[in-house]
Design brief:
8 strands, six-stranded parallel beta sheet
């Protein structure tokens, strides 16, 4: 009897989290019959500790570098994968889908793509961690526990936020934040996504109602940019969740939503 090969799922993290933060997701998706993998960004080491010890290895990497890195990863697969990204990983996932490299995408609290005009004050406050110093464009930037609490853990008990910070955070390149900040001023911005692609696979956007880093208003604005394409673009909002929604005690609710959507939308 021939068995159908498992559909690959590529998980893409965002700034300040290590790829291993996806481990509960990859275990769940494997149990559900998928073939998950969660490669780190270019330059990142295999463990949180190593990545923290060598921040210079991720410094200077921009959005295009990250996209090309995942294109190479996907090129080694037998079939086009589903891509699931969080934060800047959600922007990367949309680029991969728009470029027809992926079969479907889930973008969770995705960083703003080119065309999103209004950035709420809380989003600017988080981005200012890097943007306040132009030299950070070519450096790796780390969050303090207080900055993580504001940007990720604001909807959590203080102790849980502190534990997540200690477990998963790593320094990340400042360059993507500068590229996103200038996206609407640059004709060929790497934050530009092919939102008009009519033949791409389905896309699910997920927003957290208490997210300070990527407020739900940004995700709703992103959804509107796809209005010219007849391809499936769905939006789900979790009103009580912050930017930590993929790694905190409620991660399973988000993962189950993604699995349910994939079962409906991806054959």
């Amino acid at each position: 009897m021939m068995t159908t090969p498992s559909r690959p799922v590529v998980f893409i993290h965002g700034l300040w989290l290590h790829a291993s933060s996806w481990t509960p997701w990859t275990e769940l998706f494997q149990a559900e019959g998928y073939a998950p993998l969660a490669p780190g960004w270019p330059g990142a080491s295999d463990t949180v500790e190593e990545t923290r010890s060598h921040p210079e290895q991720v410094a200077g990497k921009g959005i295009d570098d990250v996209v090309e890195h995942y294109v190479r990863v996907i090129g080694g697969l037998d079939t086009a994968p589903i891509v699931i990204g969080h934060s800047f990983g959600g922007l990367i996932a949309q680029r991969l889908l728009g470029q027809d490299v992926a079969a479907a995408a889930v973008a969770i609290d995705p960083a703003p793509v080119k065309g999103v005009i209004y950035l709420p004050p809380s989003a600017l406050r988080v981005a200012s961690v890097a943007l306040r110093n132009p030299a950070n464009r070519n450096k790796a930037v780390a969050l303090t526990p207080d900055q993580f609490r504001y940007g990720f853990g604001n909807a959590l008990p203080a102790q849980e936020s502190a534990e997540l910070y200690e477990r998963w955070t790593v320094p990340s390149p400042g360059k993507p934040l500068f590229e996103a900040a200038a996206a609407n001023l640059v004709p060929r911005s790497p934050a530009k996504v092919n939102t008009g692609n009519k033949t791409r696979g389905p896309l699910l956007l997920i927003a957290g109602g208490h997210d300070h880093t990527v407020p739900a208003a940004i995700v709703r604005s992103t959804r509107k940019l796809y209005h010219k394409s007849p391809a499936v673009t769905d939006l789900r909002e979790f009103n009580d969740r912050g930017h930590s929604l993929t790694i905190d005690h409620g991660w399973r609710e988000i993962a189950d939503e993604a699995l349910s959507w994939l079962a409906q939308r991806v054959t």
